[in-house]
Write a structure and sequence with these properties.
By secondary structure, the protein is an alpha+beta fold. It has helices spanning about 5, 65-70, 100-105, 115, 120-125, 155-160, 165-170, 190-195, 210-225, 235-250, 330-350, 370-380, 440-455, 510-515, 530-535, 570-584, and strands at about 15, 30-35, 75, 85, 130, 150, 175-185, 230-235, 250-260, 265-270, 275-285, 300-305, 315-325, 360-365, 380-385, 460, 465, 485, 490, 495-500, 515-525, 550-560. Strand 13, helix 11 (about 330-350) and strand 14 form a beta-alpha-beta unit. The protein starts with a helix and ends with a helix. The model is unreliable at about 1-130, about 135-140, about 155-170, about 425-435, about 450-455, about 505-515, about 560-565 and about 570-580 (pLDDT under 50). One of its GO terms (biological process) is 3'-UTR-mediated mRNA stabilization.
């Protein structure tokens, strides 16, 4: 066991060392000291040896030397670190055991497994996932996070160079290809950082100043060089004075939607004008003054972009970006905000021929992999009958919000159906209430169907979406992490996309509602919590947000489809009219 003085430090304490308080030897020594217990771990910085001052002594938190000497410490592989840290993101209060240990002792497991969360294992076998380890020169600053690209073999950049041009020429008549990259990045609003300073106790204060943070964030954006940026927590004054102009100088066009309440941040989508032109920009406000449920000021942004390449039909890509409510106990609000975003996407992405154009949805969803909200996005359906309001996002292992979701979740006057599309405005009912159903107009019949549908506890959407990331490392089963601060290290950021028909990630039925689709060519690998604590978590000296940027490379595959199924509900009236005319 650690000495009592160290146990009292807790998981949120961090101790920085100066030159007079560093363990040193008379020769280089590439090792560190680690507590032999399962968790948490702690490491010392061991720089180039320096001489001990005459009055050197152990810092007071170690207690008597005999206690420290008798503690169970051991040598381990050295990892460069700038501080001494006790890390446990799942520990909720003093004296509580790590949740991972609790599950191991009680025999409990997470509600989902890596196999259930994703089709990563199948993708690995079929697509032969190739990891290009550190293909760039290691010119990063000391202590920087090292991330690598993961390529799918049949679409890797290396193989694209050696593509069979003859084969490509023969396929050009039926398939046009357009490659591009998309980044999703929560850049951490300075206002939110200062309002939630308890999340950043592990950071040195100079690293949290905006004038230090912004150059780092801009450098990350330059280095990753994405064609489309989906940014969250973009503070309005910083966007107006610095961010927009800096991104425009890099060749981006920027669209921005600020939150509707007092919080001065919002979402931005920026795209390179050399790759895309803007067709439509549609902001989404989740606040409704006439609906008590929707009293939060979160927003979304939906863009319809035109790729700059020539093909036989008009190609378009729908890009959506959002930051859903954080509160783990308000799953009803989260699901309603998501339904509003999906309804706007369905409206923007529905093409003239009745198909949906390829869709990419980015953002901070404040929900973990395997949660009901996550499953709804990926599976396209959710039966929420009897579901506790605090379990929707899966953010808390022992949720405090035990109230059951109401049926329906949102009121009718929101104008969004259980299929997450905008309801068509209904015509006035016939004045004669006693008129027979067979003589009633088709519109009234549809209204009755929709009204009965709203009493159901089943949510649906019409998009066949896949996740860019697997959420677990297949070799170890360790979870990937997109955010890491003093209180937690989890995945809450995602890039979802509509997969091409022949993509391994495509789901059954995708070809029925999408004109072409997207193939995932590669992604920037994520890290584990332990990886991040080797550089003192987030933010740190080189990474100035408490989130990691997500980055994926796609190929747009556009096909000329002779038979399509029209967008459900949005085109239902037109389809019925055509059938009726043919019968007559």
């Amino acid at each position: 066991m650690l000495p009592r003085q160290m146990q009292r430090l807790g998981r949120d304490w961090i101790v920085h060392w100066n030159s007079s308080q560093v363990f040193s030897w008379n020769s280089p020594f590439s090792s560190c000291l680690r507590w032999a217990g399962q968790y948490p771990w702690a490491s010392f910085p061991l720089p180039v040896p320096v001489d001990f001052p005459a009055n050197w002594r152990l810092p007071p938190f170690f207690g008597p030397w005999r206690q420290f000497q008798n503690s169970n410490w051991q040598l381990d592989n050295f990892t460069k670190n700038c501080c001494f840290h006790l890390s446990n993101s799942n520990m909720k209060s003093e004296g509580e055991e790590p949740s991972t240990k609790k599950r191991r002792l009680s025999g409990q497991h997470d509600t989902s497994t890596p196999e259930e969360e994703t089709s990563s294992s199948n993708q690995k076998e079929v697509l032969c996932l190739s990891v290009a380890q550190n293909e760039e020169n290691h010119t990063n600053k000391r202590g920087a996070i090292q991330r690598h690209w993961e390529y799918f073999c049949q679409h890797s950049r290396t193989m694209k160079i050696f593509e069979n041009k003859a084969t490509d020429q023969s396929n050009r008549e039926s398939e046009a290809k357009f490659d591009f990259t998309v980044m999703s990045y929560n850049i951490l609003s300075q206002n939110l950082l200062e309002d939630n300073s308890h999340l950043y106790k592990h950071c040195r204060q100079p690293l949290l100043i905006w004038t230090y943070r912004f150059p780092n964030i801009l450098q990350e954006i330059k280095q990753l060089d994405a064609d489309v940026l989906c940014l969250q927590e973009v503070q309005e004054d910083h966007y107006r004075t610095e961010i927009k102009s800096s991104l425009e100088s890099l060749g981006y066009h920027c669209e921005y939607k600020m939150r509707t309440g007092r919080k001065p941040d919002g979402c931005a989508i920026c795209f390179k004008t050399s790759k895309f032109s803007l067709i439509l920009s549609s902001p989404v406000e989740f606040f409704r003054h006439d609906i008590p449920l929707l009293d939060r000021d979160n927003v979304g942004l939906v863009l319809l972009l035109q790729p700059r390449f020539h093909c036989k039909t008009n190609a378009a890509i729908c890009i959506a970006n959002t930051h859903l409510l954080y509160n783990p106990r308000r799953g009803d609000i989260k699901l309603t905000q998501l339904a509003m975003l999906l309804a706007e996407i369905a409206s923007v992405a529905c093409q003239k021929d009745g198909t949906f154009c390829p869709i990419i949805i980015c953002g901070d969803f404040n929900s973990v992999p395997g949660s009901p909200l996550y499953r709804f996005i990926k599976e396209g359906k959710l039966n929420y009958e009897g579901l506790a309001i605090g379990k929707v996002s899966g953010q808390e292992q022992f949720p405090r919000g035990q109230r059951i979701l109401s049926i329906p979740i949102w009121p009718k006057k929101l104008g969004i159906s259980q299929n997450c599309v905008y309801e068509v405005k209904q015509q006035q009912k016939e004045e004669n209430a006693g008129e027979k159903m067979t003589e009633a107009k088709l519109d009234n019949t549809e209204e009755i169907v929709i009204a009965s549908e709203k009493l159901s506890s089943k949510l649906q959407h019409h998009f066949k979406l896949s996740s860019v990331y697997s959420h677990y490392f297949p070799e170890t089963g360790m979870p990937e992490v997109t955010t890491c601060h003093s209180r937690s290290a989890v995945t809450v950021d995602y890039i979802f996309f509509s997969a091409a028909n022949d993509d391994i990630a495509a789901q059954p039925g995708a070809e029925d509602s999408f004109n072409g689709g997207l193939k995932l060519l590669g992604r920037l690998a994520l890290l584990t919590e332990q990886d991040l604590w080797t550089v003192n978590g987030l933010p740190n000296e080189n990474n100035s947000s408490d989130h990691l940027p997500l980055l994926a490379e796609f190929r747009l595959v556009e096909r000329i489809i002779t038979g399509v199924i029209l967008c459900v509900e949005n085109k239902a009236r037109s389809l019925v009219m055509v059938i009726t005319n043919q019968l007559n």
